[in-house]
Write a structure and sequence with these properties.
With 2033 residues, the chain is an all-alpha fold. The protein contains 111 helices and no strands. The protein is 66% helix and 0% strand.
Length: 2033
């Protein structure tokens, strides 16, 4: 029991993981109780078990596993977090539970699976169970199938997706295991219950016996559909309903059936698509054209075999369809025609909606072919056209059908009608709208009267079917002209019709119905693009009327109207009789009296009678006919006439006034319209008739009557009345075509009044119609056109007034259909365009033209396209029927010749304008291919494609584009450009839609893929689009869709979804609500014109586009109380009079209300408000904004033109830190207010400078918006402010952040291309000032981007500015690299524009002036022409400079005011001092060598800066500030000129050495920017292969500086809160990038010495473990980079040095108690990596050195001590290393112990012998003993005593010298004595002192010069003879250098050979005097040694120039030379002090 008691005390979760099964069992039991006890499903307790549940179910002990399963089930049932474990747990159940013999285990496993489904994880569970079907263990397969069956049985087919199950089912029937086959059979039966016959096609290929068994089982099943019996957590309402139903005994089952029925599964969905295009015979297209019919038949048979597949893979079937169509249309052999038709039918059935693209081409051919009489052909054609109908919509085919309805051939007419009858059966009320039905019924009504009986019967059948589908009342208005017999026949047919399978029809049609339903609201909601649909709804509520027409409520009215509509004309007698019934007798008698007074009295009586008459009994026609009784309308007395006209108006207003009655009076009314006295009454009468009979009808009649007369006064007044009536009634349903010709006649009238009236009428029409109206009058004379344009101009920006009148009843039904519904149907945007006459160009699209467009020769193709373009432009407006042009154009969109693609896109834009809304039917065939072009590599093609796409969408709306999977297919293409463009487009369009098709969901997987795309821009666009998708699909749906992603991806995507959720835009509001009566959409459109015509509002253009494109009009309305249904009159004034365009959009919309009130209401108070501060300084607000933008919480300030959401976001951000009144001014739409606001900001710039800086990012962003204004006044004011702002920033020493610069500089650069000189000049000035507050090197890339602009002025100015930067700051400014930049600049030398060419040449010349001939190398290859221009320009510039030799230096000075280090501008402003000798010397040197290319500029010292800038130099090695005058004097060496022609590499090497040293010393600078700059310069060199070698010999120095910088960051910067953490990350990135570059160059990497590598590895590993770095933003990237660098260092360093370094480092870490175990682990990992690669590297390794290091390691850590360590890994590591070495070298390894003294005492040798023996390689090897031995051994105790004594002496003041001497001698005698224990506890000072003392003695004894010590700072007196490579730095090194110099100057070579060259790899390392171990020079020692080298190399650099005197050189011996050098160094030092 002892064991038990141990685990009994553990907490539950630990028991569940225990290795004892009993403990686990007990844990599971307790967990089960706990799970049942926790009530809160979100309790944190659940979280503890998340990772354990999988172990519960996969327990290896069967008993424990059972209990574990029970606990897991309880967990899944109760825990809120259980869903996270689905995948792993179900996978565990499938693999470890389903194979258990115990039935209980399987049962629990299944329960767990079902419970996961219940908690909404059906997809994951299903996936895992389907994986189980592939398991090798049949038990698992059986159980998985059973689990699937249970899930389906309980949850039903809506929750368990059947498609994947059905797909794998046939395979299970083939299993060898009977149990699997039986279970599969049960599953098949279960599936059949749910989807019935849809399952059959998928199981057709299983064994016939099995199929027969299944059939038998299926027959037995009950016919009623099964019901879901278990429900998801989200379906609790259904569950309650189900339980209630069970309780009531299923009474409601019928209702339920109806609900479930539509969910019938389409077998097509369960099938896998088959790809057939690749399987087609290769010679198909040749054979199908063959002359022999047998060959054509073979070709068709081959295709028929392929098309039989029930589901086909999508692809380009265009060629195949065309070939089949040709056979159907042209082939003489009827058998082949029917075969081709059959193939087409199969293609349509297999492709379904995807065949819709081709339907328009095929249907006309089939309809024409119905002339065939043979029943076999007719039947095939019928099948084909029926199958094709299902792939498209009736609207798309209606034009083709109507086209053949007038055909002479009765068969064609008959078959077309029969086709319509069959098609109608598949429609519903929703998919068969009136707009589609009306033209078809009209055609069918004609056929009802056809002489051929079969045509008549077919027409009856079609009309009967239509009646059955949409109802009698909907069809009756179209049948008004038919007699009763025919109507009865139609009704009889209607009763016989059976719709496509009752419920089944509903199922088939469900989807289209839903789509159509969605379509109606979405379309009607969008404000129309062309503005007048409004008119339909304009009259205070026709939207309701329109809908009423199709709703039951409206129908009775129509029927009564029908009777009225066909009211017959009554005879005079009948009229008199009816009138007598309602009028007094006296009245009737006096009507025709000769006395006018009696007539007047009669009229008055008449009027009174009408006023009191009941509407129902008023005989309108009789009354108006009485009025027309003689003298009727010829009445001469004006009073009587006025009374008559009043009565007409009364009758029309009060009675049921029909068109028949109207036609009686209209002539008379029109006749009096022009009468001075009666005209007013006549107009009132006309208006009343308009109200009664609808204005459109009345207007048409009135105008035609007026123009049939010759009276100009009547004509003019009629037009005036009509203009006014339009304003009162609105424009709904006006038939423009009806009276446009009359208007044209009026325009040509001789009477000016008529012309004026006509033009005024056009002005009113323009209000409603907009620009399309002008198209009617383009042919008029220019003078007249100018007048029309002037009138239109007047109307520009006005809103059509709200309709005040409305037709009294739902107008005659046929009009109601037109006026009310069509706008709804089409989104209302297009009916104006529908009024314009369209040309059918299909006959001009001949097969010749199509073959031309598809020709092999590109020129022919081009001509074909030109012809097509000409046809379209000539026709202006065309119908949707354009023959085969779509397919031809589609193939051109993929043309290899990009110019033709461009041309095709232009034609498609033309097509969009010409075709208008008819374009919809070409979306799939032509629209989607436009999207493909967005993936083109050429930018201009992509932008052309986007323009085309926008033009199309403007005509078609978005809905059709989003239907189907075409868009998702496009996004599947892994093309970053395409994805970027499409996502950007969707992000722009989706927010403007109110509803979208469900198919948008298909794009979600692709959207998620794009979120993780390799391309950053794609990811960005996908993130931008995410909220807009979510706005329509909802968060839940999108979250659910992440279920199929990999776990890592899922987490990322879910995080992004959460972000998107916070910024999700709202759906646009339904536009009809606020102010319904106000002709909403039309107002929106004209409002947009208002905006466009208004003052310079930045968004006006974008806005117009948006309104027309269907954006929410509500957002753009002028402010009005939303509740008020009839908006107040001020609206008109507002748009006409005041400058407040209502189309302003979000940019100003929200401000409009207050802004409108302010000027009137505020007065004095407003002035008082302005006295306070205008900016509010909020601490850290800017940082917060930067952070939010980085985290994508807000939009990144990056756009081509500012969209509303950017303006809105800026307003929100400004709200907190700008004074309210200022913000109102800044976002006012009047530009004057902007100017005023900027004036205020200028006034407060000085007094509120701190607050201005606090809001700087927002101020700059607001100015970027102003750059998009076109108003020069504002722009000049903006530039004035910016100049003052940057002056202030410079004075305050403020530096722009990256965030501020990125959101401002690119937009400023746009303005540098402005056409006005004064603007350009100011922008250039600002750019110059910008470089004082932002590094020039960072401005440079922005300017480079600016050179890519299309604006030539911008390109030229940017290039000029680049030249100035290079002149001012040198080549360092060119980022990323000078070569890359110059190549891009040089491209512009070939520009078309002269100014750009000149600017590019000037810039390259500026570079030439800086770096000489090197410029040719940097610019790369140029064309001959460009190169000759450049050379010419360089020559000219050289002449100019030669002409004025004295000036350059003076001129250069002010320009080079800034240091060449572009980042130095960040640090400080240079002090202005007089140039001293140094400057003069430098200038002289320049004159003496004008073209000296001497050294590359990366390492050129800026001596001005070093001299002037005291702060900087303080941080650098002290040497830099020495007065170098005397060293520089020898610069003027005439001899050197000869060498300047081709400097030798070595020469370059030495002249740059001192510069490199200087730059390296800057790497260790305490100033982050200085260090970054130095690293960047070094990196520049390392990356260029030809220059990298310059770094040779400086590697250790560079690494030491880097290590020091890493320590500096660690100790200082990381802990300093004042240091920006992003700067630290930036510095880390530079360091790591630099080292990666260094260690990529193997030759340089190998130069790193062992000691430096040790420190470097230590530094990097420490950095990797630093949690402070990891916690920073982007810290993880740094850690990854460190990892990468470590691998690079391990792989490319000298392998000996690397292994040694790691061993010594490990030793140090293990010795130090403070180090963490993780540090040693990581070092050992590095060692293992080295060991792993030993087989490859063994030949390059110095084994002696490595074994020496192992020996030293084993000395410090003998075997015993190693084993005492906490971990045994170091011991194992060492053993592994030695074993590997032995294995690789065998016994020879014992030859490599030469460096170890006292080998006999070494543990290592014994160990190696054992290992070698173990490997069986020890073959009598004799050990040669080499190296020194200690002759006399001393006991350890004795040694200890002697050394203690010596150290006592050293410690005492008197005997210190003696002690040091004794220690030196002792060391000489016993070189392996270990002094470490004696020095360990002493101070650093003491250790330095001892070491220095020993060195002095050594140098005295060897007769060397004494080492200079610095008394004040002992640490600095470090051994300068320790070279970085662990070898002594002997004078020989200097001799060697001198020797090279002498040879160069042609001096004799001294005979002395330099020993100890730095390249001796085998030389023994210098043994430190203080330690018996080989020393590892520490980095600090080396740095000092390097600094001394730096001094020397400086001097040598000078000596090189001064040693040209041979006598001087010879006279000095080498030693004297060295002494001389040292003396000079002393002199420099003393001067300094």
């Amino acid at each position: 029991m002892g064991d038990d008691s141990e685990w009994m005390k553990l907490p539950v979760d630990q028991k569940c993981e225990h290795k004892v099964w009993k403990a686990r069992l007990n844990g599971y039991e307790e967990a089960l109780k706990l799970f049942q006890r926790i009530e809160d499903e979100k309790s944190p307790e659940w979280g503890k078990y998340l990772g354990l549940i999988k172990k519960f179910v996969t327990d290896s002990n069967a008993v424990a596993q059972l209990k574990g399963l029970e606990a897991a089930l309880a967990f899944v049932e109760n825990a809120h977090v259980a869903g996270k474990t689905t995948g792993e747990v179900v996978s565990g159940v499938v693999t470890k539970v389903f194979n258990q013999p115990k039935a209980r285990a399987k049962e629990l496993g299944m329960d767990i699976c079902l419970m996961y489904i219940e908690i909404e994880k059906a997809e994951v569970v299903q996936d895992e169970l389907l994986k189980g079907l592939d398991n090798k263990n049949p038990k698992v397969v059986v159980a998985s199938i059973e689990a699937l069956r249970k899930a389906l049985s309980e949850f039903g087919s809506k929750i368990v997706t059947l498609k994947p199950v059905v797909k794998v089912l046939p395979k299970q029937f083939e299993s060898r295991e009977k149990a699997v086959r039986d279970e599969a059979k049960l599953l098949a039966v279960e599936i059949y219950k749910w989807i019935r016959d849809a399952l059959r096609p998928s199981l057709q290929n299983i064994n016939s016996v099995q199929l027969k068994d299944l059939e038998e089982e299926w027959v037995k099943l009950p016919s009623s559909p099964p019901k879901q019996s278990r429900f998801l957590r989200s379906q609790q309402d259904l569950k309650a309903k189900f339980q209630q139903q069970q309780a009531q005994g299923g009474e409601q089952s019928d209702g339920e059936d109806e609900e479930d029925a539509p969910a019938a599964v389409d077998p097509y969905e369960l099938l896998e698509p088959v790809e057939i295009l690749s399987k087609m015979p290769k010679d198909f297209y040749d054979k199908i054209e063959a002359k022999k019919w047998q060959e054509r038949k073979e070709a068709l048979e081959a295709v028929e075999a392929l098309t039989k597949n029930p589901k086909l893979e999508n692809g380009d079937y265009g060629d195949l369809v065309r070939a089949l169509k040709k056979v159907v249309g042209k082939d003489a052999n009827v058998m082949l025609v029917s075969m081709a038709a059959k193939c087409l039918a199969e293609l349509a059935a297999g492709l379904r909606k995807k065949f819709g693209t081709y339907s328009g081409q095929v249907v006309p051919t089939i309809l024409e072919k119905f002339k065939e009489k043979k029943p076999q052909v007719v039947q095939s054609l019928q099948e084909a056209i029926d199958a094709i109908f299902l792939t498209t919509t009736l609207q798309n085919l209606s034009e083709d059908i109507l086209g053949v309805m007038d055909n002479k051939n009765p068969s064609i007419k008959q078959q077309a009608s029969l086709f319509l009858a069959r098609s109608f059966r598949h429609c519903t009320q929703a998919t068969l709208p009136k707009s589609a039905l009306k033209p078809l019924c009209a055609a069918l009504v004609k056929q009802v009267n056809d002489p051929a009986p079969e045509v008549r019967d077919a027409a009856f059948e079609a009309l009967g079917t239509a009646m059955k589908v949409v109802g009698e009342k909907a069809v009756n208005p179209f049948l008004a002209d038919l007699d009763k017999l025919k109507l009865d026949k139609i009704k009889e047919c209607s009763e016989k019709v059976e719709l496509a399978g009752g419920k089944k029809a509903a199922a088939v049609e469900k989807k289209p119905a839903a789509k159509a339903a969605a379509e109606a609201p979405s379309k009607s909601s969008a404000p129309p693009k062309k503005s007048q649909a409004a008119a339909g709804k304009a009259s205070a509520g026709p939207p309701k009327k329109g809908k009423a027409a199709s709703a039951a409520g409206g129908k009775p009215k129509k029927t009564s109207e029908n009777k009225e509509l066909i009211e017959t004309e009554l005879s005079v007698e009948a009229c008199e009789e009816r009138a007598a019934g309602v009028l007094p007798a006296s009245c009737l008698q006096q009507l025709d009296s000769a006395n006018w007074k009696e007539r007047l009295a009669s009229m008055e009586e008449f009027q009174r009678a009408v006023e009191t008459m009941d509407k129902a009994v008023m005989p309108c026609q009789a009354l108006v006919k009485m009025l027309a009784k003689k003298p009727g309308w010829k009445e001469t007395n004006f009073q009587v006439m006025q009374a008559k006209l009043r009565i007409v108006a009364l009758v029309a207003q009060r009675g049921q006034f029909s068109k028949m009655s109207a036609s009686v009076v209209l002539d008379g009314l029109v006749d009096k319209v022009g009468d001075v006295k009666c005209g007013g009454n006549a107009k009132e009468g006309l208006t009343a008739i308009g109200e009664a009979c609808s204005l459109p009808w009345t207007a048409e009649q009135v105008v035609s009557i007026a123009f049939a007369q010759k009276n100009p006064k009547n004509q003019a007044e009629t037009l005036n009345w009509l203009a006014n009536a339009m304003k009162e009634f609105g424009f709904a349903g006006i038939n423009v075509k009806g009276f446009i010709n009359n208007v044209k006649t009026a325009l040509g009238a001789t009477n000016p009044a008529v012309r004026v009236a006509a033009i005024a009428l056009l002005g009113v029409m323009y209000l409603y119609m907009g620009a399309p109206l002008r198209m009617f009058f383009e042919d008029e004379k220019p003078a007249l056109l100018a007048q029309i344009d002037a009138e239109f101009e007047k109307m520009q920006g006005q809103t059509p007034p709200a309709a005040m009148r409305v037709a009294k009843k739902a107008a005659p039904a046929e009009d109601a259909g037109d006026d009310g519904e069509e706008p709804d149907e089409d989104g209302g945007g297009h009916d104006i365009m529908d009024l314009l006459p369209r040309t059918d160009i299909s006959d001009k699209i001949t097969s010749d033209l199509v073959s031309k467009i598809e020709d092999k020769n590109w020129k022919t193709r081009r001509d074909g396209l030109n012809e097509a373009a000409a046809i379209i432009s000539e026709a202006k407006l065309i119908t949707a029927n354009i023959g085969e042009l779509p397919l031809a154009l589609k193939s051109r969109l993929g043309d290899s010749n990009k110019n033709l693609v461009q041309q095709t896109l232009t034609i498609l834009q033309q097509l969009a304008t010409a075709m208008g809304p008819g374009l919809k039917q070409h979306i799939k065939s032509l629209g989607i291919p436009i999207i493909t072009v967005l993936g083109d590599s050429k930018l201009h093609l992509r932008s052309a494609a986007m323009t085309t796409l926008q033009a199309w969408v403007e005509q078609t709306g978005m809905k059709d584009w989003l239907e189907g999977d075409d868009l998702s297919e496009e996004l599947k293409r892994e093309n970053p450009s395409l994805r970027q463009e499409v996502l950007g487009w969707l992000a722009e369009k989706l927010p403007t839609l109110r509803t979208v098709p469900g198919d948008l969901m298909l794009c979600i997987p692709q959207l998620y893929t794009c979120l993780e795309d390799r391309n950053g821009d794609v990811r960005k666009k996908a993130q931008d689009a995410l909220p807009t998708f979510m706005m329509h699909l909802g968060y839940d749906k999108m979250h659910k869709a992440t279920g199929k992603l990999k776990p890592a991806s899922k987490d990322q995507v879910v995080a992004m979804l959460e972000k998107a959720r916070t910024v999700m835009p709202d759906k646009p509001a339904a536009p009809a609500k606020a102010g319904k009566g106000s002709a909403e959409p039309s107002r929106a459109a004209s409002a947009s014109r208002c905006a466009a015509g208004g003052e310079d509002f930045p968004d006006s253009k974008a806005e117009v586009k948006k309104v027309r494109g269907g954006g929410g009009a509500a957002a753009r309305k002028p402010p009005s109380p939303p509740e008020d249904p009839s908006p107040p009159p001020p609206k008109d004034k507002e748009c006409n009079g005041s400058k407040k365009p209502p189309g302003k959009g979000k940019a100003g919309g929200s401000q409009q209300g207050p802004a409108a009130k302010k000027p009137a209401g505020k007065g004095q108070k407003e002035e008082e408000d302005k006295s306070g501060p205008i900016f509010v300084l909020i601490p850290n607000a800017k940082e917060q904004r930067i952070k939010e933008e980085k985290q994508l919480k807000i939009l990144k300030w990056n756009f081509m033109t500012p969209r509303d959401e950017y303006v809105e976001q800026l307003k929100t951000q400004m709200a907190t830190c700008f004074a309210r009144w200022l913000q109102d001014e800044l976002f006012h739409f009047d530009f004057q207010r902007h100017v005023k606001a900027i004036g205020f900001m200028i006034e407060r710039l000085e007094s509120e400078s701190d607050a201005t800086i606090g809001c700087l990012d927002l101020i700059l962003k607001w100015f970027t918006l102003r750059f998009f204004d076109t108003n020069t006044t504002v722009l000049m004011k903006v530039l004035e402010y910016l100049k003052l702002l940057f002056t202030m920033l410079n004075r305050e020493d403020y530096h722009l952040t990256e965030y501020e610069a990125n959101s401002f500089v690119p937009y400023l650069i746009l303005k540098v291309g402005e056409s006005k000189d004064v603007v350009r000049k100011d922008v250039r000035t600002i750019l110059t000032m910008l470089c004082k507050v932002y590094p020039a090197s960072k401005v440079f890339p922005f300017l480079m981007e600016g050179t890519k602009s299309k604006n030539s002025k911008q390109r030229a100015e940017c290039l000029e500015e680049l030249g100035c930067l290079i002149e001012s700051y040198g080549m360092n400014v060119c980022q990323p690299t000078p070569a890359k930049c110059l190549k891009e600049i040089a491209v512009h030398i070939g520009d078309r524009d002269t100014s750009v060419r000149n600017a590019a040449l000037n810039t390259v010349v500026a570079v030439y002036n800086v770096c000489g001939d090197q410029v040719y190398k940097l610019i790369g290859n140029l064309s001959e022409k460009d190169m000759s221009m450049l050379e010419e320009r360089i020559k000219r510039s050289a002449k100019k400079t030669a002409a004025a030799p004295a000036k350059p230096s003076a001129a250069e000075k002010p320009q080079r005011e800034h240091p060449p280090n572009p980042n130095a501008t960040f640090l400080r402003k240079p002090a202005q001092e007089d140039p001293n000798k140094l400057n003069q010397a430098r200038q002289n040197a320049q004159h003496s060598e004008p073209s000296h290319p001497s050294i590359p500029r990366e390492f050129q010292l800026d001596l001005d800066m070093i001299e002037r800038d005291q702060n900087l130099v303080g941080e650098l090695p002290e040497l830099v500030q020495h007065k170098l005058d005397e060293l520089l004097e020898p610069f003027m060496i005439p001899e050197l000129k000869m060498r300047s022609v081709s400097p030798h590499f070595d020469d370059l090497h030495n002249s740059t050495a001192s510069t490199i040293n200087f730059v390296i010393s800057q790497v260790a600078s305490g100033d982050i920017n200085t260090s970054i700059q130095a690293l960047a310069q070094i990196d520049e060199v390392l990356r260029q292969e030809d220059k990298a070698a310059v770094m040779s010999g400086h590697i250790d120095q560079l690494l030491i500086a880097t290590i020091m910088q890493l320590r500096l960051i660690n100790s200082m910067h990381l802990g300093d809160d004042r240091v920006d953490k992003r700067d630290i990350i930036k510095l880390y990135s530079c360091i790591l990038g630099n080292k990666l570059s260094l260690f990529s160059v193997e030759a340089l990497a190998r130069e790193a010495s062992m000691g430096v590598l040790k420190d470097l590895m230590h530094g990097l590993i420490t950095l990797m473990m630093d949690s402070r770095v990891e916690d920073m933003e982007d810290g993880t990237h740094v850690i990854r980079s460190v990892n990468l660098l470590l691998i690079r260092v391990l792989d490319n360093s000298d392998q000996t040095n690397m292994i040694s370094a790691l061993l010594v480092l490990l030793q140090d870490i293990l010795v130090s108690t403070a180090s963490s175990s993780r540090l040693s682990d990581l070092v050992m990992k590095c060692l293992w990596r080295m060991i792993r690669f030993l087989p490859d590297t063994i030949d390059n390794i110095n084994l002696d050195r490595i074994l020496l290091d192992v020996h030293n390691f084993m000395k410090v850590f003998p075997k015993e001590k190693l084993k005492q360590l906490k971990s045994d890994v170091p011991h194992r590591t060492l053993k592994t290393l030695l074993h590997t070495l032995c294995k690789l070298t065998g016994a020879k390894i014992l030859d490599h112990l030469s460096m170890i003294e006292n080998r006999n005492e070494s543990e290592l040798e014994a160990h190696l012998r054992r290992v070698v023996k173990h490997y069986g390689n020890l073959t009598g090897h004799k050990n040669e003993k080499t190296g020194l031995h200690m002759d006399d051994r001393m006991s350890k105790g004795k040694v200890s005593d002697i050394l203690t004594e010596i150290f006592k002496k050293i410690g005492s003041k008197e005997n210190t010298k003696e002690g040091l001497t004794e220690l030196y001698e002792y060391k000489q005698k016993y070189s392996d004595a270990d002094l470490e224990p004696f020095l360990k506890n002493t101070s650093q000072f003491f250790q330095s002192y001892v070491e220095r003392g020993l060195r002095i003695i050594e140098s005295e004894r060897e007769g060397k010069a004494r080492i200079q010590t610095s008394a004040g700072n002992p640490e600095h007196g470090v051994d300068s003879s320790l070279s970085s490579n662990n070898e002594e730095l002997k004078p020989a090194v200097y001799y060697e250098r001198l020797k090279i110099l002498r040879q160069r100057h042609g001096l004799e070579n001294t005979s002395r050979q330099g020993g100890g060259s730095e390249e001796e790899p085998q030389q023994r390392p210098t043994i430190s005097l203080l330690s018996s171990k080989p020393s590892v020079a520490s980095s600090t020692d080396m740095l000092h040694s390097k600094l001394s080298q730096l001094k020397e190399s400086r001097e040598l650099y000078q000596t090189e120039h001064s040693s040209h005197s041979p006598t001087h050189a010879r006279s000095a011996s080498p030693a004297a030379n060295l002494d001389d050098l040292k003396k000079r160094l002393e002199r420099i030092k003393s001067n300094r002090q």
